Amino acid sequence: MADVEDSVGPILVWIETDREGAITPATRECLSVAIETGGQTGADVVALCSGRDAETVAADASRYAVHDVRILETALADPSAPEALAAMIVGACAELRPSAVFLGESLVAADLAPRIAFALGVALVTDCARIDCRSGELRLSKSVYGGNVVATFAPETVPFVAILQSGCANAATKRDQAPAEVAPLAITLDVSLPKVEVLERVVEPRSGPALAEASVVVAGGRGVGGVEGFRTIGDLARLLHGAVAASRPACDAGWAPAACQVGLTGQRVAPSVYIAAGISGASQHLAGMSRARTIVAINRDARASMFQVAHYGVVGVWEEVGPAFRDAVARMRESRS
After folding, report:
1. Measured between alpha carbons, how far is 191 from 209 in angstroms, rounded to an integer?
2. DSSP assignment of 77-91, as one string?
3. Phi, psi dihedrals of residue 74, rounded to the nearest 5°
4. Chunked mean pLDDT (size 10), the chain, 337 residues
5. Which CATH superfamily is domain 11-186 in?
6. 211-336: CATH homologous superfamily?
7. Which residues touch 126 (CB under 8 Å, ≥6 apart)?
């Protein structure tokens, strides 16, 4: 790819959607960072859309402050396989000569970004929390060593690939002016490229907000005692219009599904309120929820590490505190209705 001295190319943002077809909050935050970064460097922001409902998604993306929107098209029967989608984005880079490629934090982005960076032979920065422009050069910051140190990176390749952390910026909002231009971008791919065939897609039923998007998260750990303790977790989450989360030990014990796991090997969340019940506060779990604005810890052990990061704490057993907490919230809701 080009050297850093070359002229500034556009910033490409891959548009990811949720299962309802809406642009994800993480992607809208990514758009916000890209727009701000483009304002500092003079780079246009180009949104990349693909998939079954690409035209609808592109029309939605065009309402944000982007320069234009490109719909990636290919002759492949199913371009949703990770290697095919990554190759389409790499093909878009060959056509558009970008200065950077941004993706919002997600499991899909974690799969795509390394493939894109490897294919292009360029730098990759994951978990990026901040991007600054200093003397015309970009600096990307991220937390390392479980959040104890902030590392700053200066990519030496153009483009570079970055995954932006959820919660790193306010989500971009739609503008009132005319939408950006939407145009197709044909990408030629080898029909033998996909090595994985998708046989079936199963969407688990969900009530309430998705974990990654919830403003309130109620999480349970080993200290909640078992499945019954998680029923109380679920009751409280519903009353607070929040999502249920769990520590890895709770998921390993079968008390909560793996999709609920928060931590270094699970999801990372940044809600307004994070209630940690029966969670000791190991560094692996803190890495997934330390960006919460307000942390409430409930634990029978007054020396639990979670109390060191919590804004509010209750020392007590969940079997007593949990139902009392749930019932108090229920009474408050009833009094306001």
Report:
1. 38
2. S-TTSHHHHHHHHHH
3. -150, 160
4. 61 92 92 95 95 92 96 80 90 96 93 96 94 88 81 94 89 91 91 73 76 93 95 96 96 93 88 96 90 95 95 96 96 87
5. HUPs (3.40.50.620)
6. TPP-binding domain (3.40.50.1220)
7. 110, 113, 142, 162, 163
